[in-house]
Amino acid sequence: SNVVFVNNLPPSFSSHDVEKLLGGRTNVSKVTMLETKQGATRGQARADLSSVGALIAALDKNGLRVDGHFVSIHVFNPSRHSRVSEKPTTVEVRGVSPDTSNRQIEQEVVSGKASAPIRVHRSRQGDVVFVVMKKSDAQQAVDILHGCSIDGRVLSARIAEANADTFNADVSAPKPTRASAMVEPAPTLRAAASAMVPRKAAAKRPSKKVALSATKPTAIPLNTDSTNVAGTKSNSDFRQLFLESNKNNIGDVE
Q1: Alpha-carbon distance 194 to 57, whole Å?
Q2: Which residue of 42, 113, 195, 242 is 20 to 30 Å from 26, comparing CA positions?
Q3: C-alpha distances in angstroms, 244 versus 90, 107, 236, 254?
């Protein structure tokens, strides 16, 4: 691409000065001045050139001395100068016609001399389009799209709020309330474990109480009350009682 990176510029240089340095509007289509997080100038700029000839002419000026500064000009390498930590910004465009494609929105941004969007997607209803741009070009895209007319619709554009950059975002979907969340309590660990057992297998499997009752008989407590004969008599006593109760019968037999 015909893009150059200009370094070591004088602090007083503006985008117009950089454009003039590189040959004027005939050679330069866009100039982006790079700034610090505080908004101060860094003495660096990125310039989009119109042709290969303009690129060669700009590279010939590498090392030129301007206001006591030796300006360096070289081909722009995005991997060297892009900020990895910088998050893209989403431009929210409303009032879009269903007949308008995402490609038309993208072409409208590019024709306004803004950089190409990272991606373009729309809501489920189709009337809201989200244009994801570089942070430095987001405001320019807003200026291009706001008030623009496409397919008979006048668009309105603004910087989207946080978390608006979601695919197929449903902006009208109601949020769950606390009352609706309390209707069905969260499943417990035991319920989650039982839910993993197939229904047929769970129906055939005996319960825990039934399994224990089959292997462990119920213990009968001993009653040591003196009124209970079973608790006070021994085997020999029962034998003697049996003989006495059958004594008459035994005598009859003899």
Answers
A1: 76
A2: 42
A3: 107, 119, 12, 15
Q: Are residues 118 and 77 in the same domain?
A: no
Give the pLDDT score at 213.
55
Q: Are residues 77 and 98 in the same domain?
A: no
Residues 72 and 97 in one domain: no
Question: For the whole prediction, is pTM greater than 0.70?
Answer: no
CB atoms within 10 A of CB 166: 13
Averaged pLDDT, groups of 10, the chain, 254 residues long: 88 91 91 85 90 89 86 77 67 90 86 82 84 88 90 90 48 50 55 56 57 55 52 75 72 49
CATH assignment at residue 142 = 3.30.70.330
Going by their DSSP bridges, the two strands 69-75 and 64-66 should be labelled as antiparallel
Tally the domains of the chain.
2
Q: How confident is the model at residue 166, as a pLDDT?
A: 42
Is 180 a domain residue? no
Residue type, 180: S
Asked whether residue 57 falls in the same domain as residue 93, the answer is no
Q: Which domain holds residue 144?
A: 89-159
